[in-house]
């Protein structure tokens, strides 16, 4: 069950994710952005940004439908 799906994007050349929270209506709204700082193939730091306007700036959806299921990694 996916109550907090993460949608991938990039920020300043680093991997980033928009984290969404399920609403009472069942759909998902933006919660925060996570930006990973990598060093030597490992995560050195994770920055969390709670400014919801960042989702649009990074091409992420304003909302996700209630039946959204994140894609699986191959």
Would you mind describing this structure in some detail?
The chain is mainly beta and 74 residues long. The chain is built from one helix and four strands, in the order ββββα. Strands 1-2-3-4 form a four-stranded antiparallel β-sheet, with no helix packed on it.
Task: Fill in the keyword field for this structure.
single chain, 74 residues, 1 helix, four-stranded antiparallel beta sheet, mainly beta, globular
Mean pLDDT equals 91
What is the helix tally? 1
Q: Give helix % range.
A: under 10%
Biggest sheet features: 4 strands, antiparallel
How many runs of DSSP E, i.e. beta strands?
4
Distance between the termini: 20 Å
**Oligomerization:** single chain
Low-confidence stretches: none
Strand composition percent: over 45%
Global Rg: 13 Å
Largest sheet, spatial ordering of strands: 1-2-3-4
Q: What letter string, H or E per element, gives the SSE order?
A: EEEEH
């Amino acid at each position: 069950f996916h109550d907090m799906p993460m949608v991938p994007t990039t920020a300043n050349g680093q991997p980033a994710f928009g984290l969404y929270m399920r609403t009472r209506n069942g759909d998902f709204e933006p919660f925060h952005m996570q930006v990973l700082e990598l060093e030597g193939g490992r995560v050195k730091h994770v920055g969390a940004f709670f400014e919801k306007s960042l989702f649009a700036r990074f091409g992420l959806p304003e909302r996700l439908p209630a039946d959204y299921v994140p894609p699986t990694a191959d």
